[in-house]
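dumping this here before i forget
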Amino acid sequence: DKIRLRWYGDSVWPEADCPAYLELKMRRGFEGSKKRVEAKLNTPQPGRLPDSDGLISRKLLYDTLGDFGWDINAPLYPVISISYWRYRFIEVSSGLSLALDCHIRSTVVAAGLGYKEHNLEMEGGVLEIKGRDMELPSSLNPLRILDIDWSRFSKYAACLEAHQQEPGSQSRLLPSGLLDQSE
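structure:
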């Protein structure tokens, strides 16, 4: 299960009155679900960290997760902060949604986890395609030349794993998938 606080904008910290969402993502085997609600954030003053309650009040966090039906059996703490640039596209004939995520940066915020390198950035990017079926419309056939490993991908898991590997480790900043073996 993953609890995510998400906001959109150009800033690492949310700006005042920035739309934000509290999300609960759950996976059981191959079945996944996501619950999402708009959330009011505690926006920090420019150049300052949020107050001791964090970006969202603990009461709101626990009440919302309870409303989602999630059993809270331990204290919750932030683990990692991830930001990225997202470019959105729509394939007009099928309505297929495409998103290209790049400049994927992460910082571990949990005490005692990882090597504490500041702002790791993954190489390359992630192409996310959402539609009713797994077949690409003919207009997107040129994407096949990218030789992409078409599978589920978690930016959260990839970034967390990169922070836990020793600095300088080969391929730790590459999204999982196919690697060129010819070199």
